[in-house]
Amino acid sequence: MLSRRIIPCLDVRDGKVVKGVRFRDHVVMGEIVDLALRYRDEGADELVFYDITASPEGRSVDRDWVERVASVIDIPFCVAGGIRSVEEARAVLHAGADKISVNSPALERPALINELAEAFGVQCVVVGVDSLRDADGEWHVRQYTGDPSRTQALSRRTLDWVVEVQQRGAGEIVLNCMGSDGVRQGYDLEQLGVVRALCQVPLVASGGAGAPEHFRDAFLEADVDGALAASVFHSGAIAIPALKQALAAWGVATRL
Amino acid sequence: MSVVLVDAGGTNIGSVRYALQRLGVDAALTADPTAIRAADKVILPGVGAAGPGMARLRELGLVELMRSLTQPVLGVCLGMQLLCEHSEEGDTTCLGVIPATVRRFVEQPGLRVPHMGWNRLQAGREHPLLAGLREGDWAYFVHSYAVAPGDHALATTDYGGPFASVIARGNFHGMQFHPERSAKVGAQLLKNFLAL
């Protein structure tokens, strides 16, 4: 049986891991390779690195640290950040990343998803979706969320985008529910559940983890394949071994 | 011992190379037929689609060479699928050194494709490639196409039904998962291959 994945997310800025609250006010959490090794040792199933300033600054991921991580890490990892072309994606994959995740550049030019899927197969192609409920009661996607001064609300509905990216070749979707991000009150189960019903590829929950029960609910109620979190892992508020033990006891398939 | 990684454009070449380095082996990345033929071990990594993978081997003039190798060969992920006869992916004729066909996972309710994440290996029979593997050990998979169980299967994995996760025939071996990304279990299996 396929296990559900616990995925620490490392936001990278200027070569360091940082964390903000509601995508703002970033503080440095530590060195990339140190944190990557720590999470590997603790039993993380996968790691995601977001070069959060790459897209707003109009540049691609810094490949040096991708290579450093790839040389020491023996679990899969995904890299995101300003990947705008097949060539940039190829460079990141060749540096040792297992998957690449696109977000803002896919919104700028949706055909990028098709091109990446064609070049590398859908299993390499993750689409990150930053989503927030607006006054009209609908969820809409956000762009350039790595930089609050440049973050844009788009008219594009989250649910339409989730369907479209799958048609274009997304092999996995990471849904970041911005309304719950960084505040540790639990994943947005309502939104995840609605997206799950439209999502035939693996779905990863992001935004809001504060307690082991939140992971349980995301897996058992929203039926997500993976759950991503950052601050609760960086701060030590949740230890991955204990989390996985708890999930196993709740009947969640877990790699122990 | 000389180990070569066949540079067929697979995107996991870097990570396989690093995994071998962690085992103390410096593998050369090459598309040179002479170097491939002379190596003690040959690894065909691969992430991507079957059609472009075979097209690349043809462009490099490596199809007949790969088929004729007599030293231990290991195909990883797409590399394993390319060792089979045919893949449904792009209706592609593959190397045909292992008598098996590659088919897409049939979508079922709750069964997401690609099959992505950690799943268990069930050894089907004794083989030095599986030395030290414990029943139900976890390996990391990312794929949409798979090989059915059969005589060639050394280990199987369940995802909406069993599929072959480790295959072998003669000197040709394949792993559907990514040993380079399967933590200690993966390192053990790579070590086993190097010891064949």
Q: Low-confidence parts of chain B lasting 5 or more residues at pLDDT below 50?
A: none
Largest sheet of chain B: 8 strands, mixed
Number of strands of chain B: 14
Q: Helix segment count of chain B?
A: 6
Order of helices and strands of chain B: EHEHEHHEHEEEEEEEEEEH
**How do the strands line up in the largest sheet of chain B?**
2-1-3-4-14-13-12-9
Global mean pLDDT of chain B: 94
Task: Name the shape of chain B in a single word.
Answer: globular
Q: Just give the CATH class of chain B.
A: Alpha Beta
Based on the structure given, which CATH architecture of chain B is correct? 3-Layer(aba) Sandwich
Q: How much is the average pLDDT of chain A?
A: 90
Structural class of chain A: alpha/beta
Compute the separation of the termini of chain A in Å: 13 Å
Describe the structure concisely.
Chain A is α/β, with parallel strands linked by helices.
Structure overview:
The complex is a heterodimer of chains A (256) and B (196). With 256 residues, chain A is of the alpha/beta class. Chain A has ten helices and twelve strands. The two termini of chain A are 13 Å apart. In chain A, 35% of the residues lie in helices and 27% in strands. An eight-stranded parallel beta barrel of chain A has the order 1-4-5-6-7-10-11-12, surrounded by six helices. The model of chain A has no long low-confidence stretch (mean pLDDT 90). By secondary structure, chain B is an alpha/beta fold. Chain B has a single domain, classed as Rossmann fold. Chain B contains six helices and 14 strands. Chain B has an eight-stranded mixed beta sheet with strand order 2-1-3-4-14-13-12-9. The longest helix of chain B is centred in the C-terminal third of the chain and has 12 residues. Chain B is globular, with a radius of gyration of 15 Å. The termini of chain B are close together. The mean pLDDT of chain B is 94. At the A-B interface, helix 2, helix 3 and helix 5 of A face helix 1, strand 8, strand 10 and helix 6 of B.
